[in-house]
Design goal:
The chain has about 200 residues and is an alpha+beta fold. The protein is built from four helices and six strands; from the N terminus they run ββββββαααα. It has a five-stranded mixed β-barrel. β3 and β4 form a beta hairpin. It is globular and about 45 Å long. The N terminus is likely disordered.
Length: about 200
């Protein structure tokens, strides 16, 4: 996946490369978007008017799209997403429930484990590569890939020793839950990920 190597500021705000982690409805026509950006780490943005019919930005802020966004910092902690466009490899059609579940597993791990506003460029690139791999991986191999992804992510963040391995996806998920002290929501979809 090609990504921008830096952010820049114009009169319209900052341009960032982002992985959309999740979004929720906000007020009548807006959405609150949580994104992991390469340049500035994890952030939350308000996308105003995207729930209106004909919004050109709506399709670009679906979970796990890799997009270029322009954001404008407002008063207090409010940051508004003003523009969005797709990275050329950033919107992928997934052909199986296992792949979809794998994508959401990665998104939840990033959302739960990474603090706000701390850049992790190495992890960002690693996530992009992992999402691209999951999209083309046969279903029986997705579980092992997610298990390995979890071990490397926890190691990179300093939660486990380098070289740590897990026996399977459930053990890897349990290690994450021990760190976050909360149960992963994606667990209910583990049934869609074949176990070798």
């Amino acid at each position: 996946v090609q990504v921008l190597k830096g952010s820049f500021m114009s009169s319209r705000g900052f341009t960032l490369t982002a992985i959309i982690l999740k979004r929720s409805n906000y007020r009548e026509a807006d959405r609150m978007v949580t994104a992991f950006t390469r340049e500035r780490g994890k952030h939350r943005f308000i996308a105003r008017g995207v729930r209106k019919l004909g919004s050109r930005r709506a399709s670009f802020i679906e979970p796990l799209s890799i997009v270029h966004v322009t954001v404008q910092e407002g008063r207090g902690a409010v940051t508004t997403l003003t523009e969005a466009s797709a990275d050329r490899n950033g919107i992928v059609e997934l052909s199986s429930l296992a792949a979809v579940s794998g994508y959401y597993f990665i998104a939840e791990l990033i959302d739960q484990l990474l603090p706000d506003a701390e850049p992790h460029t190495k992890i960002f690139d690693f996530v992009c590569e992992s999402l691209a791999e999951i999209a083309v991986t046969p279903d029986p191999e997705i579980g092992p890939k997610l298990t390995a992804f979890t071990a490397l992510l926890l190691s990179e963040l300093g939660f486990v020793i380098p070289g740590k391995t897990f026996a399977g996806l459930s053990e890897a998920a349990a290690a994450v839950e021990q760190v976050t002290e909360r149960r992963l929501k994606i667990r209910r979809f583990f049934m869609h990920i074949p176990v070798q």
